[in-house]
Every structure is written in C-alpha cells, then in structure tokens.
Amino acid sequence: MLLVRSFLAYLAVVPLLVGPSSAQQEGVREAIETLAGVGSRVVGYPGYDEAAAYVEARLRASGAAEVRRDTFPVFVPVDLGGSIGLPGQAPVPMWGLWPNGARTPTLPQEGLRAPMIYAGKGDWGDFNGREIDGRVVLLDFSSGANWLNAALLGARAVVFIAPDATSLREIDDKVADVPLDLPRFWVERDAVADLRRRATDGEVPVEMFSRMEWQRKTAWNIWARFPGNDPELSKETLLVSSYFDANSLVPARAPGAESAVGMGALLALADRLGREPTPRSLILLASGAHFQDRQGIGAFLQRYMRRHPYYRAQQLDSLNVDMFIGLDLSSQSSELAVWDNASDFTLKRFFAPFGRRFVRYAEAVNPSVESGREVLANGISPIRGMDWSTYMPGGLRTAGQRVFDAGHIALTLATIFDGRQGINS
Q1: The pTM is what?
Q2: Terminal-to-terminal C-alpha distance of the chain
C-alpha cells in the first residue's frame, strides 16, 4: 500500500485549483486550459483528435517506459454545420442539439423556409393568440421542457437562445428519449437579437439549414506504463484512469473544461512518476468515449482485462492489474472521497478496509488540514450514518463501475458535494 500512499500524497491537492500558487497546480491548470481550448472533444470532432494527440505527447514526455494508443469504433452524431437568417441576408451560425433517440436535427437538403415566432419560456400562455402549426419557435433556453408544448402545437422546429448560465436539469429537459421528429437548435444570444426583436410581436420569415449525421468514428485509449523500482513489489500493478473526452447538449460545442479536471490530475501524476518512480508498477490510462456510455473503459477491459477463461484466451495481450483507481474530479468543490463503485451492501465488508486505510493515508500526508475537516471522506463506509448519496446526490456513472462489474477490485476517487452541473453544458 506504499504506492497508494504516494499517490494520495499528490492527488490531495488536485481539486484545490484556486489558492496558493504551485508548480503542480499550474501544471494541472495548463492541461485543463489546453484541453478546453481545442474545440469540441466529443468523439468524431477535430478537438477530440487534438486532445488525444496532446495527451499522448504529455505521456511520452513524462518518461514512461511504454506508451500505447489503442483504437476502437464509436457511433456519434456529427454536426456538419447549420445557419439561420432572413431570406436574402447573411445568415448566422446555428448548431444542432443532441439527437432525440436516433433522430438528428437534420433539415431537408434544400433547407427550411418558414415563419418564426418568439415565445419566451414556452408556457402555454406565451402561445395565446399565436399560430404555431408549421412555424419555427424561438425560445429562451431556460424554459424547462416547454419546447414539447411547441411540438404538441405543430411547430416545425425549435431554436433555443443561449443563456448566460444553465443547469444540468435544464440540459436534460431538452432531449427526448424517443425519436421525436422535431429538430432543435442552439444560437448565440447576440447573433439573433434582431430576429428575436422582430419575432416578439409578429412573425418573421427565416431560412434554416442544418445537417447532423450518425457516423462511425475512431476513438482512442492512450495508456502509459511506469515500472516499479522494487524487484518484488514491482510485480504488483495499480491502474489509474481518467477520461479526456467531453460531452455537451450541443455536440459541436463541447469545450469541456470541467470534464478535463481528472485528466489534468492524471497528466500531472505522470510527470511526477517520471521523476519519482514508486516501488510498485503503475499504468495510467486516458480513456476516450467516456461519455458514450463509458465505451473507452469497456474497450480497454475487452482488450486486456477479461477474467473469464473463454474471453481471456482471445486476448492478444493481457494485463494483470491488482487494483483500479478511477478519477472523477471537478473544480466546484475541494472535498474528495473514496468510493467502491458497488451498490450491493453485502460487498461493503470486503471494501470497508480499503476505505479506512485510504483515509488514514490521506490524513498522514495532509497533517496541516484544519481540525474537524475530513481530508478524504470515506464513501465506502461513511461516518455518522451517512451513505454515498449524501456525498453525491444523483450518483455518478464511473468507469470504476464497469471495471468492478468485470470482476476487478475497483475504487473511485471523486470530488463530492458537486452535482456536476457543468458537465454536458
């Protein structure tokens, strides 16, 4: 467990991105800013390719003994571009929202020409006295699921005006679980200020073009091996993982700064391991397609870590991993917890010693933390009658859950007391 202690000694400062300056914090910040600056990091977009190249370059520069990039296919909605404007005038950019089921917000090849009205938040009263059937409806984004009111009244399409800020609840309300045939779009507030003014009291004719296709794209898992420096302990291997992709309700606009915090920590850990080898061996995994139902970790497990003899015999290469630790970090809280990824209470007896030991190690390497504050919360067997939902209302969909389901010991280090409101935005 010396390896785990060394790891926690570094990781404890990662969520504290705001505070006293340090080279480690600046390194994490630089990685987050770089990843957030490449454009959309949804698989299939140029920003995802740039992010993968950056992560691979950082891992190679760290001094890892081996760096690999594995490929696997993913089907994703690719936005090929869109616009909206008055007939005969220069249009402004418009982006499609995530598909309703399989139905993408694609318009006819010749475009859509229809009257548009502005209906505010889309309450029923906002439609009083207005003809909606066959119209394009312009709505404020902060309108809940009221776009479905426009759908029921026969709208041809819905265009949402970008808000100053939003929430995960608002985002979730904008997608239907069924293939509802109502194209939905996103426009910047300033770009449609004139259209909004004209469409407030009457109708204004608009021309719209958009195409989004489901395409088979290549995703990557990038991983590095850091051998241990002890002849015996180096035979034990710890796999530490985070993801480098991002997601958004608007696939073409997914900079994902909040989603990059864990990867910033992983790359900083790689730099430290290159300078300070540990007794046990480490593998650092930057997984792709995490937001496509965690397909990145799934592909890695299928390729290297299946335990059933039938599937293991089909693997070209196998990795013997003694423990998996996933990083699910954010910048909205400085509190960190260790969790066992298990919902079965009968398994808590097995994982309880891990929770207690991790907490002791965290306390040992952070003696300066003020009295009464938990250095690392024990999400496996919480204190004072709490449970995991106390720390993370709504839960988390972690890579560790996939690893645990595959029969491996898997823990997650997660930022707690943060509902991940910035994810998908």
Answers
A1: 0.91
A2: 38
